[in-house]
Amino acid sequence: MFNFSQYFSNYEQCYQVITWLTCIGLLIVSFEYLAIHKEFKPDGVYSWKVFRSRHNFINNRLFHRLDFLFGYTAFIVCQLLIIGCCIILPFAQDHLLKAILIAIICLISLMISFRNIVGADGSDQLFSIILLTLFISYLINDPFIYRIGLIFISGQVVLSYVVAGIAKGISQKWRGGQAIIMIMNTKTYGHEKIATMLSASSRAFNIFLCWNIIVVECLFFAVIFLPCPWFIPFLIWGFLFHLYNAVIMGLNNFFWAFLAAYPSIFYLNHLITG
Question: What's the pTM value of the predicted model, to 2 decimals?
Answer without folding.
Answer: 0.89
